[in-house]
Each structure stands twice: as structure tokens, then as C-alpha cells.
Amino acid sequence: MKEIGGYFELEVNNLDMLHKEAYAFNTGSNCLAFLINARHIKKIRIPIYACSSIKATCKKYGLAIKEYRIDNKLRPANYLEEDMKLESEEWLYVINYYGQLEEDYLYKLKKKYDRVIIDNVQAYYQKRTENCDCIYSARKFFGVADGAFLYTDVDLKEEYEKLEYEEVRENMSHLLGRFENSAKIFFEDFRHNEEKLAKADIKKMSLISKNLLKGIDYENVGRKRQDNARFLQEKLGKINELDIVVGLGAFSYPLMIKDAEKLRDRLIFKNIYLPLLWPNVLVEASEDSFEYKMADSVLNLVCDQRYDLEDMKYMCELLMGEMGDL
């Protein structure tokens, strides 16, 4: 029976949500898990440089896993240039690092190998590659407690509608707390939510997160991220060992540089918090590999919608100051 009256809940937002045509899940890993079941995937090829959750999900569902290298353009090494072949019923999992894989390149991969899954977790603003399974993560770009999207041509409606919604009302203290106070105070709450999501069953995105995502001016956010990343590119591009193209809605600005670990640690004391992607690679990859260098020597400089060009200037000045002290 519908309730009428009583105290107010959160206001309902009605703006257009980016990726509203996709299936909305609680996590990116569960997008992959649902797809594994729907596609009856048994074998998969994933990059060495990847989040540990991808391999963990594949292992959980009993997939035979092969790993491949990436090149300095952050592309699967030689997968277009050479006559590489997938095994029968094997799938190719491609990560679009920092949104650096242009649409034409991804389309060619799909055309050549067909059985391709594109991980756009770091490329929220990139369009779905035509007729290709694609995964996006809202949590990597916005202040929501859960949320990811899956595009696929497989008809999943019947199975999808059977899923329960994720419930996050008790897992938002890090979001609400940081809104009123500092990140330090609520970091453990953030970590707890991440750990809980890593173990979460496959569910639909929570109603709270979906409502929050319907209240965002995506065009403004995309431009702001791009402007901030362009500023960082102008200031730091000459010392960056990566050749980065700054697109709309940049995830972060990846600065490959000597002494990245020391700089990351020193910047923490200046209240500059830069994520490490991904620490598992430092254990799994050989020390002389490009993948190891990506995990070890890249500073992921924040450039999101919370900040403006003055903040980017301030961060650059602190970074250059610390570099001068090494």
C-alpha cells in the first residue's frame, strides 16, 4: 500500500542520467559477473595491468584465464598489428585506461576479434562501442555509494528484473561525512564500504545512487574535468613519460615520473591524496615490465569536478616543490 504524508525523504531528481539505456548494477565486477553468466563465458584473456577484482571475478566463475601485455600507448600489445588469434569461445577483455583508446581503435578490435568486452570504468564519457559489451562505473566519477552500468546486446531483461536492489543507506557515512568534514576522518568508513562492495552479491544499482545520478549536470562535469586535465597537461606534459590525450570527462591525469612513490607519500602530508592503481600489479608483474612501471611510477593527479584551475595550479606548485626537494 502506498504511503502518503509523514516526514520527507530525499528529493527526487529527474535530470537525464548518462548511460540510462544500460543495465544498472551495484558494482562493475558484478556487471562482468552477470555478463559471464549471460554469455556462458568459459575462457577469457585479460591484461596484466588490471584491478585485482577483475581476475577475482573471473576465478570465482571458473574461467580459464590468460594474460596479455599492453604497450606504451596503453593498448593491447600487437593485437591489431599482428595476426593474433583468440581460442575457440575465448573472450578478449580490454581496459580503456584513462579513456586513451579512441572509438575507431575499439571498433577495429571488435571487428577483428568479435568476442570483446570493453572496460570503460576510467572512460565514463566515452560512448559505447557499437554492438560491443561495455562496462562503466559511476563510483569512479561521482559521490555515490554504489553504481555501475553494462551495455550488451544479450536480452537480459527477464533475469535482470529478478534481481534485488542494493541498499546503501547504512553505507554512506563516508560520503555524507566528507561533505561536512575532512576525508581523513571518514577514510575508514570509505574503506569499509569498498570492502563490502567487493563481496556484494549481484544486485541492481541502489535507488539512492540512481536518484543522485539523475541530479548531475553531466555536460558541465565533463568540461570541468577536461579543463582541469588540460591545465595539468600544459604544466606537466613535458616531464610526463606518457603521451596523454585529454578528452571530455577525464578520469585523472596520469603523470609517469621518477620517484612517484616518494612524491605520492610526501603529498599526503600536504593533504593531496593520489590513488595508487593497482598495487596488486607490483606483486604480479615482473619489475622490468611496462605494467610494473605503470603501477609504480604513475601519479594519478586528481582533476575532477570538485576542483577548479586554481586548485590545479596549487597542486602543481606543491608537486614541483616536492620534486625539487628530492
Word description of this protein:
- β4, α3 (103-113) and β5 (116-119) form a beta-alpha-beta unit.
- α1 (28-39) packs parallel to α2 and α8 (218-236) packs parallel to α12.
- This protein folds into two domains: 23-164 and 202-213, 3-Layer(aba) Sandwich (Aspartate Aminotransferase, domain 2); 218-325, Aspartate Aminotransferase, domain 1, CATH 3.90.1150.
- It is globular, with a radius of gyration of 20 Å.
- The protein has helices spanning 28-39, 52-60, 103-113, 157-161, 173-180, 187-198, 207-213, 218-236, 260-268, 279-284, 290-297, 309-325, and strands at 23-25, 43-47, 64-68, 90-95, 116-119, 133-137, 148-151, 253-256, 298-301.
- The model has no long low-confidence stretch (mean pLDDT 95).
- The protein has 326 residues and is an alpha/beta fold.
- The protein contains twelve helices and nine strands.
- Helix content is 38%, strand content 12%.
- A seven-stranded mixed β-sheet has the order 1-7-6-5-4-2-3, with helices on both faces. Strands 8-9 form a two-stranded antiparallel ribbon.
